[in-house]
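Table S2 (text version). Query chain:
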Amino acid sequence: MSDTTAAEAARKAAEWAHRAEMAYDTAEQFHVESKEAGAHRGQQSTAAVLAEASQDWEGARKKAAEMANMWANVADALQLAELGEHS
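Corresponding structure-token output:
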């Protein structure tokens, strides 16, 4: 990682943030579908599967958000180091 620049780390942070947003949207969609399926008689097993998928995507969103935060912190540290090299 010593060759990573602040700009590269910032790009990685943005990529992970985008993944977190996509995972959030997917989790939300599964949640909505689970609620809709649960409202129909005989669809409880489908609702349970969809609810589990929603939880799985929420876990993926959390991990992606953590990675985005980590890369943002790396970008900050590298930027400070790069600025210190130029002074």
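Notes on Table S2: The chain has a mean pLDDT of 94. The longest helix spans residues 44-86.
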